[in-house]
UniProtKB/TrEMBL annotation:
SUPFAM superfamilies: Acyl-CoA N-acyltransferases (Nat). This is Acetyltransferase (GNAT) family protein. It comes from the Bacteria. Keywords: Transferase. Residues 1-101 form the N-acetyltransferase domain. One of its GO terms (molecular function) is acyltransferase activity, transferring groups other than amino-acyl groups.
Length: 101
């Protein structure tokens, strides 16, 4: 997990995972999930800094790909500004039976 801070406050987080891709000879890739920035710290470069730190972590781990998904259309420009491109569709089903938006 990455944390972003301003002063003494944590204003952003991102979860990182580095799995092996069995379809590509077990080469590692970086999964970035749950990129969250406090509403009061948005538009200040916090999300971009988190994604840059995630990329550096992936490169240090030998990853040649970064994957992330976002379901908030307001966040899409942030990912694009960080150099990510929409590339696939994400499908999901909640296994606990709860309906979520």
């Amino acid at each position: 997990m990455l944390l972003a801070g301003l002063g003494d406050a944590v204003v952003g987080t991102a979860d990182l995972t580095v799995p092996a891709d069995a379809a590509r000879a077990d080469r590692p890739y970086l999964l970035v999930a749950n990129v969250v920035v406090d509403a009061g710290a948005r538009r200040a470069g916090v999300g971009r800094a988190l994604l840059a730190a995630a990329r550096a972590h992936g490169e240090a781990a030998g990853c040649d790909e970064l994957q992330s998904s976002a379901d908030d259309p307001e966040a899409f420009p942030s990912y694009e500004a960080a150099g990510l491109q929409a590339a696939a569709r994400t499908d999901e089903r909640y296994l606990d039976g709860d309906a979520r938006p």
